[in-house]
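Recall the central idea of this unit: under ordinary conditions, the amino acid sequence of a chain determines the structure it adopts. In this exercise we apply that idea directly, starting from the sequence alone.
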Amino acid sequence: MRTPLELGVVSDEISPDFREATRHGLGWGVTKYELRVLKSGRVPEVDPDEFADVLACVRDLRLTITALSPGVFKHSLAKPDDLEREIRETLPATIRMAKECGAPMIIVFGFHREQTDPPDGESRVVGYLRRAAALAEREGVRLAIENEPGFWCDSGANTRRIIKAVGSPALGANWDPCNAYGTPETPYPAGYEAIKDVIVNVHVKDTKKGALIECVTVGEGAIDWRGQIRALMTDRPVSHLTIETHCHPLVESTRKNVETLRRLMKEEA
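Accordingly, the structure predicted from this sequence is:
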């Protein structure tokens, strides 16, 4: 018998007001939250007082922050100054913030891919990630690459290959099947089978046309979420799934996603 996974939510997919987001989330029985955007900006560049209130909310309501998502490595290799700044400044600041709120993981990305990238582009990608992973390992946190369309890390196979080339226990995959839609592989089962041995986090959303185009609530799009959930419940690479709604109205759509995922997991148990 398969055991259902817990559910979490990227908090700003409900509201950038963390207290408002958790008020709704707790009403649905959700106690796990990923931090990405607050009212004052994207982590780690947020107002200190607002983050202090997030910490108080986490403590008082006994919530869990599962990960922080600062948007690191969304640039192309043609922007080395930005990439260096993220390694020197953004990532260390995010690690400090993660430690404050008890988050074990930081979501990063896999470099926007350009037609003008140099022939050794993948080795440069691996080099940046290796430096970032070494920093994370020293600080006792883990990085998870979120696959993204148009990036070096887009499909399951490409993301896994780069993670394996980095070769760090501090680097894994934030598998997003919806973000893999439109790559040469089918997100499930092909993409999942390629990447499942390095998955450390999972994002859940659905689409009819593409990761950033015509997103819909889970089960209404092109992603085989029933099959993917069955596999995740069987293989258990993670203990929870994080909802990243991406369609409006956010509150109602996130509530519907929570209900749909719980129903699917119950049916697959």
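The longest strand covers residues 199-204.
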